[in-house]
Structures are given as structure tokens and as C-alpha cells.
Design goal:
This protein is mainly α. It has a domain at about 70-129. It has helices at about 5-15, 20-70, 75-100, 120-125. The longest helix is centred in the middle third of the chain and has 49 residues, at about 20-70. It is elongated and about 85 Å long. Belongs to the ammonia transporter channel (TC 1.A.11.2) family.
């Protein structure tokens, strides 16, 4: 059937008055669109992970900048402060940031998410169960 669901195939066949070749072609187009959406989702995920890695690398660069701008006796304090800042940022992203970025709850407003804080109900939110 060329990548279509049974119902889609029957709808296309009925619309084309049983022209099976045209129906199979349309089904291939439908399935290629689904694959394109999957590739786009994968690329978006890779971009987000790459951007997150760059942000954590920037924490280290900023720590070096701060450590170079102060007396050497205070360098350890600044480096510890930067490590704790990165750890606090990761915890806050887990608790609040993911929900704001990706949580579409009962009242989607198109600007900011209102669900999935602390990744609560993450699996049921994505699978619908």
C-alpha cells in the first residue's frame, strides 16, 4: 500500500474511482511527508542539544574571564560560584524551564507552557495515556 494507513488508502481509491496506481503514488507522497516531519523533529532535537552544550561551555569560559579579572586568592571562590551557578541552572531548568518551553497543558496560550513542571506526567503527556 505504499506507506498509507488502510483508511487513507481506501479514501484515495474511492476518490480516484479505483485508479490503484494514482492512489499508491499519493500514499507515497503522504508517507514521505511523515518522514520529513520526523527528520525535522530530529534536527530540532540535535540543535537544542548542541545549543545546550554551548551554553555549558560558555559557563566555563565566563569562569575563566572572572577568575582572570580578580586577585588569585579569590579565584577558587569564583570558580566554585560558577560551578554552583551551572548546577542551579540545571535544576531550575528541570523544575520550571522545561514546562515553560514545552509544556502545553489544558490552557495553551501560544506564548509559554503551563504544564510538565518538574517533568510531572511527562510520559502520559506525550503518549496520551
Amino acid at each position: 500500500m505504499g506507506g498509507c494507513l488502510e483508511e487513507q488508502y481506501l479514501e484515495v481509491l474511492a476518490a480516484l474511482h479505483s485508479d490503484a496506481v494514482a492512489a499508491a503514488t499519493l500514499c507515497r507522497v503522504f508517507s514521505s511527508r511523515e518522514r520529513t516531519e520526523e527528520v525535522a523533529f530530529g534536527l530540532n532535537t540535535v540543535f537544542m542539544l548542541f545549543s545546550a552544550a554551548l551554553v555549558f561551555i560558555m559557563h566555563g569560559g565566563f569562569a575563566m574571564l572572572e577568575a582572570g579579572a580578580i586577585r588569585s586568592k579569590n579565584a577558587m571562590n569564583i570558580l566554585l560560584q560558577t560551578v554552583l551557578d551551572g548546577a542551579a541552572s540545571a535544576v531550575m531548568w528541570y523544575l520550571v524551564g522545561f514546562g515553560f518551553a514545552y509544556g502545553i497543558g489544558d490552557n495553551p496560550n501560544g506564548f509559554i507552557g503551563d504544564a510538565l513542571f518538574g517533568l510531572s506526567r511527562y510520559s502520559s503527556h506525550n503518549t496520551g495515556t
